Amino acid sequence: NFGARVGLAELPFAVVSEKHSAGGLGGTCVIRGCVPKKLLIYGSHFPEEVEDAKGYGWSISGIFSGSPKINWSQLIAAKDAEIKRLNGIYGKLLEGVDHH
Q: Rounded distance, CA 81 to CA 94, Å?
């Protein structure tokens, strides 16, 4: 402890944030900006990645029967679970910290 003080102004956690009543640790980038966007983009680009892999010597015959399909509910649930996990990590980092 070096006597430094830091101010955190975070709203109670919610996966879907609201301007005045719900947010969480991690702020805009982690909860509703950069991280969710990247998770959704990475999760939705799988078919293109498989096609690109063919050009690098990968053979995918026998892996798919038909075209790949996305389960939107499962993608959103995975994104929400990761946001909750990150929020929990930030909360653990603050355990034992004197707060008001």
A: 20
* Prediction pTM value: 0.71
User: What's the rounded Cα separation, in Å, for the pair 82 and 72?
Assistant: 16
Pick from 10, 37, 31, 18: nearest CA to 85: 31
Token pair listed for 48: 């293109």
DSSP state of 15: S
Amino acid type, 69: K
For residue range 13-57, list pLDDT tens digits in order. Answer: 776 666 677 777 777 788 888 999 999 998 888 888 888 888 899
CB 76 within 8 A of CB 82: no
Cα distances (angstroms) measured from residue 45 to each of 26, 85, 90: 26, 23, 29
Is residue 75 within 8 A of residue 1, CB to CB? The reply is no
